[in-house]
Amino acid sequence: MKRARVPKRSDERRDFLKLVLTGAAVATGLSARNADGAPAPAEKQLPEIPAGDNPLLRMQRELQRALKKPVEQRRWAMVIDLSKCIGCSACTIACVAENKLPPGVVYRPVLDEEFGEYPNVARRFTPRPCMQCDNPPCVPVCPVKATYKRPDGIVEIDYNKCIGCRYCLPACPYGARTADFGEFFTLGTPKVEAYETQPNFEYGREWNRAGNKSPVGNARKCHFCIHRLEAGMLPACVTTCIGYATYFGDTNDSESLVSELIAKPNVMRLKEELGTKPKVYYRM
Amino acid sequence: MLKATKVLLPILIALVVLGAIGAWDRLSTGKLSLNFGSYIPWGIWVGLYIYLVGLSGGAFLIVFLHHALGIRALRRASVYALLVALTTLGAGLVLVLADLGHMDRFWRLYTFANPRSILAWMVWIYTVYALVLLAMLYAIAKEKQGWLKPLSVVGFLLVITFGGGEGALFGVLGSKAAWSSGVQPIRFLFSAFLSGAGIVAFTTVAFRRWQADQEHHGQVEFLRYLVLGFLALNLLVEFAEFTVTSYSSTPAIVEAYDLMLFGSYWWLFWLVQIGIGLVLPIVLLVPPCDGKPANLGIAGLFIALGLAGTKQNFVYLGLAVPDFRALPDAFVHPRLSTVYFPSLTEWLFAIGVVAAAALVFLIAIEKLPFVEGRRAPPVRPASARLEPLREGGGA
Fold first, then answer.
1. What pLDDT, on a 0 to 100 scale, did the predictor assign at position B74?
2. Is residue B66, in this structure, part of any structural domain at all?
């Protein structure tokens, strides 16, 4: 079995430059949406990924490989390496920026825990996205079928169906769902700034919160940046992680980096005893 | 008009006006002025909703006991019980409707109901139950006696279903240690019966429209034993739940109980639940204080108040222990807190809705012709009944 290659420092500068160029190409030539707002046809617009051992480049290539398969043959998963996470919260902020999250809504907080007593102390950072459980407790409780599991394993919320009863919030054992109460950062100032009323593109559709429209009043949660995935881009939290602590890919691809990582014994999932079968793995 | 009604009417109207201010704020600002958030996603409105709907079911027990089981002592109380059941159900449903993030989509509960969701089932059951209550009211008004027994049986089966279903609504959430228990349906059902019996006892004593005759005293005695019996059953279930789950030492449960006993809502448990809801009613209902009907009325009111506090505590404590200890501090915002106290809007609207329910009840017992004391039974002398025949000359 192939081992996950940990990048060497000497490679990193070259890989970083490649990545920046790739990122620029992605940002300019490819957006999660076409100009007319229709979903981007994945295969046609996928950028060329340069060769290299950088984990991000590798995951990008694997993502493109997965997108060539029918959606029901993909199985997205995330691996978070706790030994690499430094608790910078860049992923949290990237997620907020990508999904234009309002105040009080967070998809990927980083738990910061301290252990021991001085001088024997330790700190652990645990990013906590939605676990995209294979047995999601949030799905059966929804009274109007507004949340469901997609064929690729992502648990989706249909903002237009959700009635905002918030029953799914306490049902989630990971506290991964938050409710949108319609707040804006600049509410209460002379003017709600325009950047706050720009649409976001969650689930590949355009959502504009102005005028208390959905997703205001809805339950919200991490969706592995499905709108980016379908455009050939990795989730925002993965690409912004400064320590390569978050990995993403298709577990139905045995050659993928995430498949390699989750096959190792130093991997666990949160609250595994509940039988929810999360698709987010933690590497110790 | 009853003296008590005369006193209460202006107060209730004032409270309804305050409630209208809360409703206006809710409608105009959305959920901005509500204090619950994502880690405490349900507040005083949901606590009151489960309480009021349970109370409605409990009140319906009295209707069932009279019409289906033929307990004559509850003849007068059963009319009051039906009105209590209707008004509290309406109030509970209004509160939970206001709690929805998208009130305009409530119809989806009927058109796109998820058969795997208990909440969806509950909405359907409430709807059928409401129709049964209205049909019974119609049957009483139109003196269709034959309808009452089957309707009360159907209604009671619905009460059992949604009374227990309410407990299941919380009990099935395995993520919340303080809620996840098979005893919740029983617990909710018994507390519903207790609150219903209590409030019916209160209303029949405080707003009595009939003479304090032998039938009234029989009714008071029956209700006293009923309330005492459900009080004992509730104590038993609560004791079992409290002791067994806390002895299990599941940290989240112990933490929830610690919060209940010594947390910021200690007063809700010790003063409202235990003091007003348990100790005082027992003192009022057992010798030497058990002789006066007024004591039953006060005890019934206290029990109802105590159980309202119990439900608030139940909802809050189940949510107050975070899924991960570090979660509330991981991303700081008032909506991501495990501390909750209702906002002014929440208080105003909650008080207004309860006041509106009380107002409707008082107006109903004043205006509805079939409420005993409103009008004498239509007894016509035999000679009057023969009069038309005589006039027609056919006899």
1. 93
2. yes
